[in-house]
């Protein structure tokens, strides 16, 4: 075999290996590429600076985190069993502030843009809008760990409050 034939066979073999789903070569995706998609909330735990822990959304929270390939995200989290409004016909604008506030305490929502720092494996989200208006325009930075279809996000606020959130890739 001449040198050109060997190079052609090598190039074909290499491109074929890269396309195999189980191939280590085919799995060399960036962290950003691995994060793109929809993730369902499994758990959240908040640890106060003094070590006290709480689960703001209960032991069986509902939620979704959507990270699109264009750098946009949406996040919604809710506690199961939030109190219903007294008047079943109520809509948001007609609901008394106390009832709406109680329902909102067990709910979080925000959206905006996201990026990844591949070097330190962190996810940065910049809020465009949020249930809590004070959060708008702020950035959050969380450490990312991936194991199969499980995503863990860990962040610590300037006040020393740590939040651990676990998601599972939506199917």
Brief write-up:
By secondary structure, this protein is α+β, with helices and mostly antiparallel strands.
Query: What is the share of helical residues?
Result: 10-25%
Arithmetic mean pLDDT = 87
CATH fold call of the largest domain: Lipocalin
Main sheet: strand order: 1-3-4-5-6-7-8-9
- Written as H for each helix and E for each strand, in order along the chain, the element string is HHEEEEHEEEEE
Q: What characteristic shape results from the CA principal axes?
A: globular
CATH architecture of the largest domain: Beta Barrel
What does this structure look like?
- Residues 9-19 have low confidence and may be disordered.
- The protein has helices at residues 3-19, 31-35, 97-105, and strands at residues 37-47, 53-54, 62-67, 72-78, 107-117, 122-130, 139-147, 150-156, 162-169.
- β6 and β7 form a beta hairpin.
- It folds into 2 domains: 1-28; 36-80 and 107-169, Beta Barrel (Lipocalin), CATH 2.40.128.
- It has an 8-stranded antiparallel β-barrel with strand order 1-3-4-5-6-7-8-9.
- It has 171 residues and is of the alpha+beta class.
- The longest helix is centred in the first third of the chain and has 17 residues, at 3-19.
């Amino acid at each position: 075999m001449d040198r050109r034939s060997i190079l052609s066979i090598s190039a074909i073999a290499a491109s074929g290996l890269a396309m195999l789903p189980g191939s280590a070569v085919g799995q060399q995706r960036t962290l950003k590429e691995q994060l793109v998609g929809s993730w369902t909330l499994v758990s959240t735990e908040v640890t106060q600076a003094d070590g006290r822990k709480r689960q703001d959304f209960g032991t069986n929270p509902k939620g979704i985190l959507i990270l699109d390939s264009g750098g946009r995200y949406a996040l919604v989290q809710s506690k199961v069993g939030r109190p219903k409004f007294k008047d079943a016909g109520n809509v948001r604008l007609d609901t008394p502030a106390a009832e709406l506030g109680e329902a909102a305490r067990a709910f979080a929502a925000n959206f905006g843009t996201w990026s990844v720092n591949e070097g330190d494996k962190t996810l940065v989200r910049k809020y465009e809008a949020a249930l809590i208006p004070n959060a708008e325009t702020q950035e959050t930075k969380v450490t990312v760990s991936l194991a199969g279809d499980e995503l863990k996000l860990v962040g610590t606020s300037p006040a020393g409050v740590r939040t651990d959130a676990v998601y599972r890739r939506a199917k």
